[in-house]
Amino acid sequence: MDTPAPRPAPYDLLGVGIGPFNLSLAALAEPVPGLRTLFCDQRPEFRWHPGMLVDGARMQVPFLADLVSLVDPTNRWSFLNYLRDQDRLFPFYFAERFQLPRREYDHYCRWAAERLANCRFGTEVTALHWEGDRYRAELTDTATGRSEQVHARNLALGVGTRPVLPGAFAGLAGHPRAFHSADYLERRAGLDGARDITVVGSGQSGAEVFLDLLRRHAGDGVRLRWLTRTRALAPMEYSKLGLEHFTPDYTRYFHGLPEPVRDTLVEAQWQLHKAASAETLAEIHDHLYERTIGRPIDADPVEITPGTAVTDARPGPCGGLELRCRHTDSGAEHVLRTDAVVLATGYRAARPAALEPLADLIDWDAAGRYRVDLDHRVATRPGLTGGLYVQNAELHTHGVGTPDLGLGAHRAAVILNAVTGRTVHRLPTRTAWTGFAPPRPAPAGIAPTATAPTTAGPAPATTVPRPQELTRAAAAGR
């Protein structure tokens, strides 16, 4: 009687998707002795928002918000080591730039992705199953169609977000001159010949698209329009204390709030994470100022209209597009005719199709979202005991710092510590001067001091590391 072949040893962690956040996790996991990890992405290579790598566009976070530095600045995948590898340390030093060009950040990530042995591109994770003590992942090589299966004890979902097409624009779906800003560079040439172009959305993408169009159509008579629902083109909050909302301290505080409060806060805090940078808004104003020297402002074919919502959009009866608009303050409605629309209308977390076989084993909240603990682990039914972690899908549980690159390395380190059940990366206990929670009451019978100390958030619960079935080498720290 033939003895069945033993099952191959599972990976300790399988990453689905390789954006900046799972790339950070891969980079921090790579040097951990004995830890077996694999990260897969269906794309042939790493690309970061390729449609928005317009000339002159800069990051909104400092260069230290790279894949590893805010957790382990000695890691070989740091941005400074990238500069050394590219012989660009002196040019960077003399440039005195804290924020990188977007194109350079994209190139840095590709530099790391191409060299990390635990990253595989052109490999789609088509289905995920739970087999009692491990996950089974079905993989497909996107070039050859060849299929294989791998097993893992833990999963990290890093599939990113998808462009949002608001319902008002459903009538323009597929129109050659109506597209999301995510595709701007690829489809910009299709705007040639348009005499009236409208940009919708007041975030950083909307501002960058509008500025690029201003530069490309200086003096050629093309009418450029910028519409936004927000009542003002307010800049992103970038004060030093305001930025403390993007710290682990605020994440802990936010996570401890009741769900209805969290949902309200996310909407109210749009200026912390959805607005355009003050620098980009200043560039737009500078450009408009220069191009109107010697002529009246109203002679320039440019319109900037905040406080205006598009309620419906359709192809026009005589060509072009028609946008039905409503002015927020007055309630007045009007129809706007334009030749093309670029929708800078944001992104939304996506649930990968590969997760469907596990859907009934996940403990969704009432709105169909993940319930996510402070370790970024998704709550699951009792039958599923393997770790399921998410990156950039927990805005509703972890707050405005969720999509921020500055918290990416910290989150990856938290996940690694949870997966291994030990402190692979030592993390700070306090990261902000701001105390977000109210002061704790003094214990009964103890007179309060003159100034009660405040905390940065609810005291972190003492957690017992989850037992993880690591390889013997990893468990022994070898």
Q: Give a quick account of the main beta sheet: strands, pairing sense, barrel closure.
A: 5 strands, parallel
- If you average the pLDDT, what whole number results? 91
Number of helices: 13
Helix content range of the residues, please? 10-25%
User: What shape does the CA trace take?
Assistant: globular
C-alpha-based Rg, rounded:
25 Å
- Number of DSSP strands? 20
Which strand order does the major sheet show?
5-2-1-9-20
Low-pLDDT regions:
450-478
Strand content: 15-25%
Termini separation: 38 Å
Output the structural class: alpha/beta
Provide an overview of this structure:
- With 478 residues, the chain is α/β, with parallel strands linked by helices.
- It is 23% helix and 20% strand.
- It contains 13 helices and 20 strands.
- It has helices spanning 20-29, 79-85, 89-95, 102-115, 184-187, 204-216, 248-255, 259-268, 270-273, 278-291, 395-398, 408-420, 472-475; strands at residues 13-16, 37-41, 58-62, 99-101, 119-121, 123-130, 135-141, 147-152, 154-157, 161-163, 178-180, 196-200, 223-227, 302-305, 308-315, 321-327, 333-338, 340-343, 347-349, 387-390.
- The strands form six sheets. The protein has a five-stranded parallel sheet.
- The protein is globular, with a radius of gyration of 25 Å.
- Mean pLDDT is 91; it is low at 450-478.
